[in-house]
Write a structure and sequence with these properties.
Elements lengths: L7 E7 L4 E3 L4 E9 L8 E7 L2 E7 L7 E9 L5 E9 L14 E9 L11 E7 L3 E8 H7 L7 E11 L5 E5 L1 E5 L10 E8 L3 E8 L20 E4 L3 E2 L2 E5 L4 E3 L5 E7 L5 E8 L2 E6 L1 E2 L4 E6 L5 E10 L5 E10 L4 E8 L4 E2 L4 E9 L3 E10 L2 E10 L4 E8 L5 E9 L14 E9 L3 E8 L3 E3 L4 E10 L5 E10 L10 E9 L5 E7 L12 E10 L12 E9 L7 E8 L2 E3 L4 E8 L4 E9 L5 E5 L1 E3 L4 E6 L6 E11 L6 E3 L3 E6 L6 E8 L3 E3 L3 E9 L4 E9 L5 E5 L1 E4 L2 E7 L4 E11 L4 E3 L3 E6 L12 H6 L21 H7 L8 E2 L2 E2 H27 L1
Parallel strand pairs: 2-8, 19-26, 28-34, 36-42, 44-52, 54-62
Antiparallel strand pairs: 1-3, 3-6, 4-5, 4-7, 7-8, 9-15, 9-16, 9-17, 10-14, 11-12, 11-15, 13-14, 18-20, 20-24, 21-22, 21-25, 23-24, 25-26, 27-29, 29-32, 30-31, 30-33, 33-34, 35-37, 37-40, 38-39, 38-41, 41-42, 43-45, 45-49, 46-47, 46-50, 48-49, 50-51, 50-52, 53-55, 55-59, 56-57, 56-60, 58-59, ...
């Protein structure tokens, strides 16, 4: 059995949630799987998102049929909808049986804070769409209210408003909307229906309320726009919230002093209460308000301590929000928590940073902290404790002598602040100052020449003298043309090394990618190595800290890829359809990646990474669900696999997207509970309908047994599933068909279907003959006319045959008479003959 070929795939791209906040770090986990045999080569995993890219390598072997997870960190800067593109073997170094599963894309929504639109509204729901356009969705507002712990309340359908926000989180528009109630709508138990609105941005906030919070005026308006946009994300329902304005967190309140507490809400409330507790002390109080937004309460505290304030706010419907903060009643306390030195070893004439952590139990302004060296003040700094009750102060100190030195840090040494405890304002430390060492670069070596784009390895021998213990140093590798200036712009590699006195150490430094550089220099480079002490120590002799050598870089090829052909299939497509774009590209070093540039009829240009089909030797990209009609212009930009990533660009090509002329697709039509139903019982007709552009309406046309026709609207009960329910009191056969129209006006009709309404489920066609008898003798149980037929031609219709218990397929008469009738007739005839005979005999005798 041959081993399975190489086959790597990206199986999942995960983020902590479907949306993240701008400015926060996001952990992106990419899972890759080896579905072939063991891979011993180095495998790279790459992500690209919003101009940011990162590559991780799987260093160890990758056994077959196993998965590995790689984590990336991304920090989005601005709100919007982003696409995380993950690729395994992005450099295409591994020859795989299937290259199409090396790529996976994940949508991530980045949001910022969205300000509350109107204080008269109490609840909202964030919706994200792909683009601007008409959005539509079936909402269950009863369930949304239950998610907010609101039960036994009445949804106010007049309260619906749709507010669009810009990508920076600012309110842009209150847009037109229309809410169509579903069948059986009930404001308390079944507040469901389809909401349609015109989204002027990708962020739409649905504001809604209940009647208990005050009625609203209906502002529904027909949505005139026709270009639709799909929903990408539906958030969780959100209620109003509160902010404790006063006291601020960690405020100091003096005992027996009246202070004002304030709570502010972004919606009108009915009640706000507060509980302040410290140990066994608990204070309960109510807030008052003039407008229902800003609430006040004046309070005074006798017992000292650290209090926790919990506020509980509610609206008329019973939605509750709690908030909390802490404050202190009593005198403040300042203390020095710790001091730290930037180095564990301090050297003479070398700057050292002394970090001091100072803490206060309350807000205090203009507090001074001093640093003493052997009892003399060398530095001070004045600071204020406001939002943060812990401050960090850094003093810089350059020791001028060797030996043991006493360092002291003192906060408020002159007692300008009346504190609860004056004994914790000072901290002391004794440090030892040493004589600096001497470190040197004894020699370096590097190859004389290297190919452009390759890695250069430089070897250096280092040694330190004049110290009694091992010491850590920074080693830098510099590269420059013309002249070496030893500047940070010339630095290409940094390494830390620990040196033991008088013991030379050999290290390797790396110039990761050699470049050819200036043409006039013909690839000539100066390579330099420098060793320096860490920032907290000096070097007695800097003249032996550097050495350099020469290197020649030979140039890489500079031929761009050749785009032989670009095309699309099909060349013309309808709105809502898919189209695949192809490119054939060749290059001597191989193609690294290909970017597809598409300009829409609206002059918006989008970029897409094309995928490679190794079997057919071409690059491709599929555009799904085209939304805009018109001429699209596209071109491809290809980069080769050389170090220089030479670029080749194709000519422009076009494809046409026409308006939608394809009717909806009727997947299935069916009835429940059965095709035959007893009179006055409900029959439900279902249909599943799909359309790329969206469904406008679905109707069912029913013709009753008397030929009367009715058109009925079918309601959407699930995604793409519609239903019509009705009871029928007229017995007989009903025929029906379903018609569906998409947003472009294309209509599709189903085949003709039927159902029966009967008085008896055992007699479908109501002809008084049971279905089993009709099926037994080959008659149609759905045709009431066959009850009057005479299959065997004996003069008896089938109803009489059934009632008489006769076989409808065997004649039961002679000349139209039944056997009983013939018997009676024969008896009468015999009696008549006998009577005539007797009469003739009597006449003869007489």
């Amino acid at each position: 059995v041959s081993p399975a070929p190489f086959d790597l795939s990206v199986t999942t791209v995960d983020t902590p949630s479907t949306w993240v906040k701008a400015g926060d770090y996001v952990l992106i986990n990419v899972t890759v799987k080896n579905m072939g045999h063991k891979v011993s080569e180095k495998v790279d995993v790459k992500i690209v998102v919003d101009g940011y890219s990162d590559v991780h390598y799987l260093d160890e072997e990758f056994p077959g049929n196993t998965e590995k997870k790689v984590s990336f960190t991304w920090k989005p800067q601005h709100p919007g909808l982003y696409f995380v593109n993950a690729t395994v073997d992005s450099l295409d170094k591994i020859n795989e049986s299937n290259e199409k599963n090396n790529f996976l894309e994940k949508q991530v929504l980045v949001i910022d804070g969205f300000p509350w639109w109107n204080q008269s509204w109490h609840y909202r729901l964030l919706i994200t769409t792909r683009d601007k356009g008409v959005a539509s969705h079936f909402f269950n507002f009863t369930e949304l209210l239950h998610a907010l712990d609101l039960f036994d309340v009445s949804f106010d359908r007049n309260s619906i408003r749709v507010v669009c926000y810009s990508e920076t989180g600012e309110i842009s528009d209150v847009v037109s909307h229309m809410f169509n109630e579903s069948s059986g709508y009930n404001s308390k138990d079944n507040a469901t229906g389809r909401l349609t609105w015109f989204a002027t941005s990708v962020f739409s906030m649905i504001y809604f309320d209940v009647e208990e919070n005050g009625g609203k005026i209906n502002t529904e308006k027909q949505v005139e726009e026709t270009v639709e946009t799909p929903l990408i994300q539906i958030g969780e329902p959100e209620g109003w919230n509160t902010l404790i304005v006063k006291p601020k967190n960690n405020t100091l309140i003096l005992p027996n002093t009246t202070v004002e507490f304030q709570v502010e809400s972004n919606a009108k409330l009915s009640k706000v209460t507060g509980v302040a507790s410290a140990g066994n002390t608990t204070v309960l109080f109510d807030f008052i308000s003039k407008d229902g937004i800003l609430w006040y309460s004046n309070q005074s505290f006798i017992k000292e301590g650290k209090y926790t304030l919990i506020t509980t706010a509610s609206d008329e419907a019973g939605y509750v929000h709690k908030n909390s903060c802490v404050f202190t009643v009593g005198k403040p306390d300042l203390l020095i928590k710790e001091i730290r030195f930037s180095s564990t070893k301090i050297f003479k004439n070398t700057v050292v940073d002394i970090t001091c952590v100072v803490e206060s139990t309350a807000f205090i302004d203009n507090v001074t902290i001093y640093m003493y060296v052997n009892g003399e003040v060398v530095a001070d700094e004045t600071l204020s404790f406001e939002e943060n009750l812990e401050k960090t102060v850094v003093f810089s100190w350059t020791p001028k002598m060797e030996g043991n030195i006493n360092i002291s840090v003192y906060v408020d040494p002159y007692n300008t602040v009346d504190e609860k405890n004056e004994e914790n304002n000072r901290i002391n430390s004794t440090v030892t100052v040493y004589t600096p060492p001497d470190v040197m670069v004894k020699k370096i070596s590097a190859p004389s020449s290297v190919k452009e784009g390759k890695t250069v390895y430089v070897h250096a021998e280092l040694e330190t003298r004049g110290v009694s213990s091992s010491t850590t140093y920074h080693v830098y590798l510099y590269v420059s043309q013309k002249i070496m200036r030893w500047q940070s712009s010339e630095k290409v590699y940094t390494k830390n090394v620990t040196l033991t006195p008088y013991k030379p150490v050999n290290i390797t430094l790396v110039w990761d990618t050699a470049v050819y550089g200036l043409t006039e220099e013909n690839g000539r480079w100066i390579i330099g190595v420098e060793v320096v002490p860490v920032s907290s120590q000096q070097d007695l002799n800097f003249s032996n800290n550097r050495r350099n050598t020469l290197l020649t870089v030979t140039p890489e090829e500079r031929n761009p890829p050749v785009v032989n052909k670009i095309w699309c299939e099909p060349a013309t497509q309808e709105v809502g359809g898919d189209i695949t774009l192809y490119a054939e590209i060749t290059d001597d070093t191989g193609v690294y990646n290909v970017t597809l540039m598409i300009t829409t009829p609206n002059n918006d240009t989008n970029k897409h990474m094309m995928k490679y089909d190794k079997t057919n030797g071409k690059w491709f990209y599929i555009i799904h669900s085209l939304k805009t009609s018109g001429v699209y212009t596209y071109r491809v930009v290809a980069f080769d696999a050389s170090y220089l990533r030479n670029k080749g660009v194709s000519n422009n090509a076009t494809f046409l997207v026409t308006e939608d002329h394809t009717p909806p697709h009727l997947v299935d039509v069916w009835l429940t509970p059965n095709r035959v139903q007893v009179k006055d019982n409900e029959i439900r007709i279902y249909v599943i309908v799909y359309d790329n552009m969206g469904i406008n309406w679905v109707n069912v046309t029913i013709v009753d047994p008397e030929g009367r026709k009715t058109d009925n609207i079918m309601e959407e009960v699930e995604e793409n599933t519609y239903r019509f329910s009705e009871t029928f009191n007229l017995t007989g056969r009903y025929t029906f068909y379903v018609a569906a129209s998409d947003s472009a006006g294309n209509i599709k009709y189903s085949e003709l279907h039927d159902f029966w309404v009967t008085n008896d489920l055992n007699d479908t066609d109501n002809d008084h003959i049971p279905d089993w008898w009709e099926k037994r003798y080959g008659f149609d149980p759905y045709n009431p006319m066959d009850a009057q037929s005479d299959e065997d031609g004996d003069g008896y219709n089938e109803l009489k045959e059934y009632n008489e218990g006769l076989d409808p397929l065997q004649p039961d008469t002679v000349f139209g008479f039944s056997q009983n009738e013939l018997t009676v007739a024969a008896a009468v005839l015999s009696l008549f003959i006998i009577t005539i005979t007797l009469s003739l005999v009597a006449m003869k005798r007489s």
